[in-house]
Amino acid sequence: MSDALTMLRRNVRHTRRNPSTVVMTIALPVFLLLIFVGVFGGALNEGVRPTPGGFEYIDYLVPGILLMTVGYGATTTALAVNRDITSGIIARFRVMAISRASVLTGQVIGSTARTIISAILVVGVAVALGFRPAAGPGRWLAAAGLLTLLTLALTWLGVAVGLAAKTAEGTAPFTFVVQLLPFLSSAFVPPESMSAPVRWFATHEPFTPVIDTLRDLLLGTPVEHGLVAVAWCAVLALAGYLWARALFRRDPS
User: Using CB atoms within 10 A of its CB, is residue 68 exposed (0-12), middle (13-18) or buried (19+)?
Assistant: First the structure.
């Protein structure tokens, strides 16, 4: 734990010296929020209301934007880990008298903290734009827990991708997938409005139950896919952790 905290402090110092990482993690989701609310919101508003006089489009949209915030945070983690592994920093850590697990754990803790802070700021901007959640304290806590679990899952996958890639450009497929999948989910429009093949994919891909559960928790509607969402997050987190650990132990550099 002491070694992990040392690595966490290193991660925090890097963030303070390069604040653009946090700025971009916040700016891109906020930009999408502004675009979809300001440009498409009027046209889509009626189509996403569950009942007459129900929620506005921004209320439907925010959970998907939060997921994209987590995705952007994971891609920056992949790049940071790749920079460390290709520059030889991790090779130096491997020969030091420190816990090997702390090298990755510190990176994950720091990235998770940055992403959660970014998500809180995105929610603040959404509230300023008209987002009106109906969640009580218990539902807010459950939503925060699910978002944290998702952050851990995608962050561990980002760490593994950063270790596996030979160059920074090698992390691009992960970035592409993380940024594309939300558009093929229930993040922006209900899957029922999509064509049959896309609707099937959107219904069964991992992000849709997570977004739907966040939406149900924040808007006070019945939660239908909570167990599926938690299961997907747990599977992705375990897969990313095992993959990252295997790569870190095997890599001789």
Answer: buried
